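Trying the structure run again after the queue cleared.
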Amino acid sequence: MILPFGALLAAIALAPLAFPGWWARHYPKVALGLGLPTVGYYLLGLGAHTRVLHVAHEYVSFIALIGSLFVVSGGIHITVKGEATPLANGVFLLVGAVIANVLGTTGASMLLIRPWLRMNKYRLTTHHVVFFIFIVANVGGCLTPIGDPPLFLGYLRGIPFWWVAEHCWPMWLVGVGLLLGIFYLLDRRNYLKAPRAIRERLAEPADSWRFEGLGNLAFLAVILGAVFLEHPPFLREAIMLAAAAGSYFTTRDHVHAANQFNFHPIQEVAILFVGIFATMMPALDWLQGHAGDFGRPTPGLFYWAAGTLSSVLDNAPTYLSFLSAEIGLFAPVEVVRAVQAALAQGAANPAAAIVASPEVLGALAGLREYFADELATGRVPVEHIQIAELLGVPAYNRFIVAISVGAVFFGACTYIGNGPNFMVKSIADHQKAHTPTFLGYVFRFTLPYLLPVLVAVWWLFFRG
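Done. Tokens:
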């Protein structure tokens, strides 16, 4: 049943290039035609109703977040200041990478893609769109759980909020820094090709920093706050959609017109991802059962495996699969029982408990540092004991860093690796910007520019 997923990926990659007119008219039929048989197999063949409902809930959550951010950001018009020099562009992307950790990669992408396209309008090329996806929509968001969905799921499993920033900032600096350096060289060459008279005539006025629709920042804050709501079911999604509706109906028409706002980009993403979420169920289920079968575990292996699969699968469940595999490998039941016994012997002072295993010592250290409140009550969930061990043993927490960086960074490898990617492409297409095809993205940009950066990150941090 993995074949429909492969067929849909092939259609997304090849059909717009080979049959552009046909694909524009019939892509909904292709997505639904491949997704429905998979759903039918799970419902009728396997009786896995709970699994299908879970995926449906994930899809609704995904579209609610993507769609609400798209609508709200469409009500904020940013007019940039002066000429888009290579240095100005680099600073813009760096700011976007930082903002991605506050608004999330989706929020930052939806807020900044339109001013990015406008400021480069007189010399807009494919590398402007692609490097925006690389830096703002993906790599930039690896410092906080808000930044990217895999990290948020790790936070929900017990990884402390600031732990990711404390351990992933060197990889962030290298990844963002190398990509900005490559972009600067490409953009400088493009900049020098544009005649000076054209640059001066078409550049934004030097004093034209303007912001319209700032009232939508309140709706944006509501959406970001709703991300942390878990119960009751669908309350989070309802709040997001209500914020989107409030933004849409209170934004002045001229702001939407200035942003060339319409619903076509989100419509395309919503339809295609129905098929993607449906057809990737068998692939994710296989990964869940085999994530620990990739040979002798090393941080480098987990980095490449989690990353490669995140480039074509949803990176959030891929991350969870490898986190579960890590727990199974390094925090088995025997260690949990030993920690519980140690706590029972010296609950008031776990350090005084007699333990022999470095894993148990690491788990106790992790509990004292990251779960002190629960430790004080004497009631520590098994899941937090397992996470505490992974955090408390340096050799094991490198695996968490590896899958965190891999899932986030490799999401930039394809248009479907991370939710904002396709949205950015769709908005750019609508505004008549040059965007590469699915295969063009991979072969013209991912392999020659992004892959060396991914290799450098592996070589510097995960090779040993």
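Residues 194 and 204 are 15 Å apart (CA to CA). Worth checking whether this holds up in the mutant runs.
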